[in-house]
Amino acid sequence: MSEHGFVSVFAAQLDAYVSFKRAMGFVGTSRIWYLKQFDAYCAQGHRTVFDRDTVEGWVTAFLERAGRYRSWMSYIRDFGRWLQVNGASDAYVLSEDWKAPVVAARPYLLSGQEIDQFFNAAAALEVASPWRWQAAAFFTLMHSCGLRTGEARALKTCGVDLDDGHIDIMWSKAHRSRRLPLTAEVIEVLDACDRQSSARFAARETFFVSATGTAVTPAAVGVTFGRIWDRAGLARPAGGRQPRPYDFRHHFAYSNIERWMSNGTDVAAMLPYLSRYMGHSTFESTYYYVHTSPDFMSSYAELTRTSQSVLPEVGFE
Description:
It is a single chain. With 317 residues, this protein is mostly helical. The longest helix is centred in the N-terminal third of the chain and has 17 residues, at 29-45. The chain is built from 13 helices and three strands; from the N terminus they run H-H-H-H-H-H-H-E-E-E-H-H-H-H-H-H. Strands 1-2-3 form a three-stranded antiparallel beta sheet, with no helix packed on it. Helices cover 54% and strands 3% of the residues. It has three domains: 11-98; 112-231, Orthogonal Bundle (hpI Integrase, Chain A), CATH 1.10.443.10; 247-306, no CATH class. It is globular, with a radius of gyration of 22 Å.
């Protein structure tokens, strides 16, 4: 029987591929879910050869319900490459012509008032799940340390040292790790959360947990964020950019940039530190936040005049 529930003729190979990716540190569930869709397609259509007709046939069929998001194509493309490396030299690798286009993110720019109202509501959240005591801590880390949502979800209890005042973000995006210092205020919030979680889930592995003691899911984070946003009485735009948990990370970046600008600090000199703190692999990723800053346009001329050797012409990657 397949370890992951695959049922097609490719089940054994799919299991081996997923195990290989796990050993390499890629443990996300999205890969398995999409490969299961491919597996079901092959089983139902009696597909037994991993050729162009099979692969592109599934991609074409799946596109009808996948909308504009195409990042899942990388999973079936990577599986084809893995098959070739492991002896199936005739396995088809999905053409780069199917590659997903790069779509620039459009963050919702949080105001100071919205942030204050949000955290007041988070502190008073009344739910039966652990979010009752950990919501404020979870979103405080995203807001005060600029964490990615996935980094906060995956944060290990062993990676939180409140005595020394730091957290360790391990094997995050592109397998980079970093240690981030915490302020006294953040330590106080995390400590209150840790005491309550430890009393109920003594053996938990992740700092933030679900009602069953396992790591919280992306969906749970989104639902909780939305519940707090609404209970805070904050308006939702009728159209355009909508507030998301990830916007706390955006706010962390551009608020630092704006503070440096207002203080007369050399932003170009500080960007490498911000880039390292946020876990970016290149400065281009950090430059994006310069352009999302609410006050960017009024400061752009001066910033580029003093930093022409650092700022790129286009920073929306």
